[in-house]
Amino acid sequence: MSDSPTHRTIAVRDANSADIDLLARWAIAMALETEHKTLDPDTVRRGIAALFAQPQRGRYLVAERDGAAAGTLMLTHEWSDWRCGDWWWIQSVYIVPAHRRHGVFRALYHHVATQARADAGVCGLRLYVERDNAVAQRTYAALGMEDAGYRMFEIALPRRLDNG
């Protein structure tokens, strides 16, 4: 096997609770890089830990390139009554800068797509992307994804610390 960046081994695995600090660092870096938002590290760690505590909410995958942690994505589910199946949402994508443009996201995506195709209850894959992130949009299009034609609206609600 060659040492060139394009000939390195990329392995994808399910993340586990030992990855919480790493996933939190990556989520914080991604928010700052893509949306210029500074996230509270404790809130992010609690949010990631909550997913491991309640796996029905989703899961994280980690890609390792030659044994080094290189990137991640989170999968969540959305029920579609129109299709009587689940959309798998690809979220919280982060690739370590030194590993970008070396097939890390492609490996994560193909891993997810293979699992989705094998699950009769999955009707498709979705993700959202910042409207000005042309590089990411080209990457997703190159993998066969299409603009779904939707705009997203939201309202943020105040959070109570006791969650009660």
Automatic annotation (TrEMBL):
Domain N-acetyltransferase: 10-164
Record CDD domains: NAT_SF (cd04301)
Keyword Acyltransferase set for record: yes
Pfam families in the cross-refs: Acetyltransf_1 (PF00583)
Domain of life: Bacteria
Keywords from the UniProt entry: Acyltransferase, Transferase
InterPro entries: Acyl_CoA_acyltransferase (IPR016181), Bact_Acetyltransf (IPR050832), GNAT_dom (IPR000182)
GO MF annotation, one: acyltransferase activity, transferring groups other than amino-acyl groups
Protein name: GNAT superfamily N-acetyltransferase
Species the sequence originates in: Chiayiivirga flava
Lineage, highest ranks first: Bacteria, Pseudomonadati, Pseudomonadota, Gammaproteobacteria, Lysobacterales
